[in-house]
Each structure stands twice: as structure tokens, then as C-alpha cells.
Amino acid sequence: MDAPPIGKYSLAVLLVSSDGHVMEETPPESLYLLYNPWCKADAVYLPNDVLLKEYIMNENGLIYEGDADNITSKPWNFGQFEEDVVDICFEILDNSNSALKNPEMDIKNRADPVYVSRIISAMVNCNDDSGLLWGRWDGNYADGVAPSRWNGSVSILRRWSDGGRRPVQYGQCWVFAAVACTVMRCLGIPTRCITNFNSAHDVHCNLLIEYLEDENGVPIPDCSRPDGRCDARWNFHCWVESWMTRKDLPDGYDGWQVLDPTPQEKSDGVFCCGPCPVRAILEGEVGMKYDAPFIFAEVNADTITWRVNSDGTRTKVYVDKYSVGCNISTKSVYGDQREDVTALYKYPEGSAKEREVFERAGRQVSHQPGDNEDQSPQLKLSIKNALAVHGTDFDVIVEVQNVGREEARAELTIKSFAITYNSLHRGDCQSKTARLTVPAQMVHKEVLRLRYDHYGACVSEHHTIRVTASLKMNNRSEVINTEANIQLKMPKLNIKVTGEAVVGQKVRADITFINPLPVPLKKGVFTVEGAGLTRATEIHVPNAIQPGGEVTVKLSFKPIRSGLRKLLVDFDSDKLMDVKGETTLMIRQKKYYWP
């Protein structure tokens, strides 16, 4: 017998006599039929109670961000059991293009988690339908909510539903992924958030991220596609994995499936991605549906830099086979620790097996990897920095190492600029050019001082500064390039909770913030929420917070559900955004005493 589709059902109990006469009928009651990962016969069956506790039942999570060398985490309230969320999840399904075009077929297909997950991947973004979130990456969020300000999914879902299914402004990759995680868990599909560091966006589907530069090493945009999209490498990118069987694929591809609701490339004419078996990515089987070539490139693409010569020809100047797809991360099922799942996606970098898989995938997308031997120039570049605390000045050190047997003369150019997490340029900071003579087997160190007076005006809400170094040797055409991303260290919010943590009894939270910047902060606002504790609440700071100044706001709430709960807080202002804080509370049931 085929499984019935998930959905909202009406149930009435009939008392029927032996002759078929209805003697009594109860009033109809509504019930929801969801996927059941505890049931062996279900397509999402997951035989591990520890995993189910995390990937179905846990309403709180961590989203990893930063960069491969400085991984940070952001707390998130999934809130899949909050009031109205299940209704909104079915409202999302009911308003998909598939449901609107053919409701009868759509309802029938809802028994299949592959179909439902693909619908959710499309509906979390609004690019082709009346989806949940509007993606924006340019920093202009005045007519909505900055992506970094969200603490959880529930307020996004409610805004969409209460607002007549108008897209909520705004989202970026971790917001898209976290909302998708909430919806999938609510529907009964085990799901977890994944972060891939140095994530490739391969627009040409050739498993290569290709950059162009002129003869002086200055980058040249390569927007050969009509829509203007270029190859890119993001500091990090988030998607989700959902657990299900794949009856539509050969044996061996059940289990974790990649779903990516961030609108990057179209799949069958729609901005969605997946589900694609993680095992298919590991083995380079890019012919597996859905969207395996794009996902494979995200974690495996090689990076190539081409010099465009004056006659229009191109010369390959740099190949990086190892940087893309680092430290692929998810929250551990055993607590708030990071679990590295890179080995599920790829064989060890540089191993014969990894290159074998890459070449297998390359043949399937009509790309034959060329001669990618790394160059061994006489001079080598590296970038280091002192502790970079947001609001302070700090040094960046570029080391030029001469590994040859003769002295080398060269011109070194160091540039710094603010970027977003997906490498969009937000403004130039400081730069420096120096002529060097480096003795054989020696190291020259060049220092660039980054001052808050310069970077503070352009640094994005992602608090990232990219430093690039270019070295052009005298009497040679080659240019050596390297870069590093500097993640500015952020302050934390202090949260003190007073009162007995009991369902239905008032609890008070005092939230304190100290301004770390050398400038006043205006338009300060705290956003507080917690699953089972309180709905998203905004507390505005009426006055400017002076440099080094402290502000404390107070919040009272009554917990509505018992158990281990997290209170999440975000602080935003005109010059500093995405300051986070959290605290954990154990909420007890109220005791009743009978006379």
C-alpha cells in the first residue's frame, strides 16, 4: 500500500450498527499527517534516536560562518513546534507553482519527500513564485530587515503568512537554509544545516572557477554570460541536508540529500537546488539528479587565474586545486560543538582518489582537466595579521620569501577592501606599494597598518576585510598573487536572567551591551526571541551609545513550554550590526497542589 500524502485531514468517528446504519457520529476534528522518521515503512525513516532528537526535535541550532581559518557560529531558533508554524508550512506547499497549476497532482505527490523537498527549495526564495524570502546582498536593507538581524525562522514565517504571502525582506544564504530547515523538520523530515567554506559558484558548469587579470595583475571582470553572473568563491555558503530514500535513483543513494534554497542558478527553469545525494558528490557521479554538477563544483572546483595579454590571448598564471570546499560543518548531535563532515563530500585534498573523482566528474560535464601543475616561483607570498578587533587599528604583515639562490628585486602592491561573505566589494580601505630587494633564502616583511578611521566607513555587516598582495618581479612578466580574509572580532552581549524559570511565571532578562567602537552608535535596537519562551520582540535604544558606553535593557516574558530553552538576542545600530548573545534556561512545569 502506498503511503498517503502529508497534509491536513478531517477525522470523524462513526458508530455503525450491524446493518450499516450510522448510530452516532462525532464532530469532525482536524489532524495533520506528517512524515514519520520513527516508522520503518516511511521514506524518511532514520533508525537512530540520537540523530532524531537533534534533526527533528531540537528547536535550537548553530549556523557556522566566518571563513575557513576563523570559523564562528551564529545561534538560531528553528522553532518548528511554535504556534501556527505547521499551518504555515502547508500554506507554503499550497502556494507553490505546482500546487496552483495542478492541485490534484500536487496533493498526490506529497507522499514523496523528494517532491516536497524540491518544492520547499523553490518556495523559500521568492524568485519564481510567492515564496518566503527576498534575497539581497548589496547592503541596502532600509525597507526591510537586514539578513544579519534575524535570530530565527518563526518571525519570518509569520511575516510571510500574515502579510498576504508577500516576500519577507531580506535573506542571505544562512537565512534561506535555516528557514528551510525549520519547514523540513516541521514536516517530519530529518534535516540539518551545512556550511561549506571557500564555496565555489561555478556559472559555466565546467568545474572551474576562472579569474582574469591584465598584464599588471589587475583583476578583469569576466561576465560573459548574458545575465552578468560571474564565477565566484564565497567565504562560506550554507545549505541543508535532509534524510530520505531515493526510489527515483539506483540503489545506494539513500540518506543525506543536499537542498539549497538560496537562489543561485536555475534548475529545470526554477531557482531551486536538489535534492542531490551526498554520496553522489563524494563519488563524482554528477549525472545524478538533482543539480549534482553545481553542488560538486561548490566543494571541488579548481581555481584558475588567467593573464589576458595585450593581443587578447590568455596565459595560465596560477592554479589552486585545494582551497575550494574546506571544513564543511554542521552542529554536533552531542552539544554545541562543530562537526566536520568534509569527508562525506570529498576524498582528502591532493589524494589520488580525490583527483580521480574530479576527473570522472569533469568527463561527465565535457570538461577535460588540463595541465594543472603548480608553479614554483622564486618568490613566495603569505599574509598574516595581528588580532583584529572591530573598532581598533591593527597590522597586516605580508611576507615575501625568496626560495631561490639569487637575490630578487620586485614591486609589491598590497590592497585592502571590505567585502561581504560572498566576496562582493563594499569599499576600498588602505593600500601600499613598495620596491623590494630580497636576498637569497631570506624573508622580507612589509607591514600595512589598517586603521578604523579608514575601514570603519565601508566594512559590511559581515565584518570582513580582504587583503590582497601582488608581486611583480623585475624583468619578468609573471605576477604572483595571494589574498587573505580578516574576520574582525566582535563583542558579545551579556544576558542575565532573574526569576524562577517556570511555565507561566514571569522571568526577567537584563541585556547589556558595551560600545567597542571609537564613535557613537545611533538607532540601536535589540531583537529578542526564544522557542517556547517569547515571540520576537524589539527593544529600541532611545539615545546614542557613546564610545565605551554601556546600555542595559530589560525584558519580561512568561515561558509557555518546559524543557531546555535558549533565549537569543541580536543588537544592531547604524555603525555596528550582527552583535549576538544567547543564554540557556531550564524551564520547569508549574506545580499544582490539591487540597
In words, what does this structure look like?
By secondary structure, this protein is of the alpha+beta class. The protein has three domains: about 50-365, Alpha-Beta Complex (Coagulation Factor XIII, Chain A, domain 2), CATH 3.90.260.10; about 380-485, Immunoglobulins (Immunoglobulin-like), CATH 2.60.40; about 495-585, Immunoglobulin-like (Sandwich), CATH 2.60.40.10. Strand 19 and strand 20 (about 395-400) form a beta hairpin. It is globular, with a radius of gyration of 27 Å.
CATH homologous superfamily (4th level) name of the largest domain: Transglutaminase-like
Dominant shape: globular
Total number of helices: 12
Q: In the CATH classification, which architecture of the largest domain applies?
A: Alpha-Beta Complex
What is the average per-residue confidence, as pLDDT, rounded to a whole number?
A: 91
Trace the largest sheet across and list its strands: 14-13-12-9-17-18
Largest sheet: 6 strands, antiparallel
Helix content: 10-25%
Number of strands: 32
Quaternary state, please? single chain
- The percentage of residues in β strands lies in 35-45%
How are the elements arranged and paired?
Layout: E1 7-11, E2 14-16, E3 22-25, E4 29-33, H1 49-57, E5 60-67, E6 70-77, H2 85-94, H3 97-101, H4 103-109, H5 113-123, E7 133-135, H6 154-162, E8 168-171, H7 173-186, E9 191-201, E10 208-213, E11 219-220, E12 232-244, E13 255-259, E14 276-277, H8 278-283, H9 292-300, E15 302-308, E16 314-320, E17 326-331, E18 338-340, H10 342-345, H11 352-364, E19 379-385, E20 394-402, E21 408-419, E22 425-438, E23 443-450, H12 452-455, E24 464-473, E25 479-487, E26 494-498, E27 507-514, E28 525-530, E29 534-540, E30 550-557, E31 563-572, E32 579-587
Parallel strand pairs: 7-8, 10-15
Antiparallel strand pairs: 1-4, 2-3, 5-6, 9-12, 9-17, 10-11, 12-13, 13-14, 15-16, 17-18, 19-20, 20-23, 21-22, 21-24, 24-25, 26-27, 27-30, 28-29, 28-31, 31-32
Helix pairs in contact: 2-6
